[in-house]
Structures are given as structure tokens and as C-alpha cells.
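Design request, C-alpha cells follow.
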């Protein structure tokens, strides 16, 4: 509510107007202190739209009703399938800084196969993973899940890879 300055001073002196910042929760339909809202960096004000109590209640309802959960999963799945190409393109650009065309070029340079084990992408039931340096973000190539996991478990360390190779050769 907008009050003229004199009215605001009177309401404040009577204790009916607070200097504490508040936010409206649309679920319980109450104005609450900002501390009653979880943080959310993706919103303009940096807070969830619902208060902590309402968010908790919604979560509990969701867990109690398996049908509701299944419906939500099905809705997300349909949305993903409908927008799969766009989602893949957005994620490639956001995470790795490449377009789907650039990914296709890398795949062609690798003869449509994993850069390590040379198995063709068609042998797998999913696309090859984009391998990248976690320090610089530079894309190194496309790998199958097993090769990508192997490198990840060795912490992208050439030294660890050399030790693993020496171990395998000694046995």
C-alpha cells in the first residue's frame, strides 16, 4: 500500500508499519520477512517465490503422492522429447561453449568413433560424451562413457594415467 509521508510516520510510530523488508507468499497469501524465504539466485530478488513453510509443505505433499510424482516426471519427459534438439544445443553451448555443428565436426574428424577406444558411436545406445579440460574448459574430443569415466576417475591426470599404464604392464 502507498501511504503519504505523514501517514507513514504515524503508522510507524503506532507500530503498524515496519522497516523490516517483507515479501508476499502466493501460497499462504501472507507478507513475511525476507528471512522466511529460501535463497534462489535465478530470481530477480534472489529469493524463492514461496516461503520456507509453504515450500516444505509442497515437498511433503509431493513425496506423499506417488501419482503426482509420476505425472510430473511424465510431463518433464514429454517436454524434453518435444524440445530435445533445442535443449541439447543450449546445453552444448552453455556447458562446453560449442554448437551442435561443431560437435558434428569433431565427430567427423574422429571418424564417428570414440577418440580413445575407436568404437563407433553407433555401437552405443547414447551419444559420445564431450570430453573437456576442467581447468581451461577446452574441448578435447568425444569419448564413450567408459573412456570418459576412466579419465575422470584418474582425475584427468597424465601422471595417474602413466602410473596406471606402468601397473598394467608390470602384471
Amino acid at each position: 500500500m502507498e501511504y503519504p509521508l505523514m501517514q507513514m510516520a504515524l503508522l510507524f510510530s503506532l507500530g503498524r508499519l515496519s522497516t523490516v523488508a517483507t515479501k508476499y507468499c502466493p501460497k499462504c497469501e501472507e507478507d513475511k520477512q525476507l528471512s522466511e524465504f529460501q535463497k534462489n539466485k535465478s530470481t530477480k530478488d534472489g529469493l524463492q517465490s514461496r516461503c520456507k513453510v509453504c515450500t516444505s509443505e509442497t515437498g511433503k505433499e509431493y513425496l506423499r503422492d506417488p501419482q503426482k510424482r509420476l505425472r510430473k516426471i511424465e510431463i518433464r519427459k514429454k517436454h524434453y522429447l518435444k524440445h530435445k534438439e533445442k535443449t541439447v544445443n543450449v546445453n552444448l553451448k552453455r556447458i562446453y561453449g560449442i554448437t551442435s555443428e561443431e560437435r558434428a565436426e569433431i565427430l567427423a574428424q574422429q571418424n564417428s568413433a570414440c577418440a580413445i577406444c575407436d568404437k563407433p558411436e553407433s555401437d552405443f545406445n547414447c551419444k559420445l560424451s564431450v570430453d573437456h579440460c576442467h581447468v581451461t574448459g577446452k574441448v578435447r574430443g568425444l569419448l564413450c562413457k567408459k573412456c570418459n569415466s576412466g579419465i575422470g576417475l584418474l582425475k584427468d591426470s597424465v601422471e595417474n594415467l602413466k602410473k596406471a599404464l606402468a601397473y598394467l604392464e608390470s602384471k
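Comment from the thread starter after seeing the answer: thanks! Helices lie at 5-13, 52-64, 66-82, 84-96, 100-109, 145-153, 158-170.
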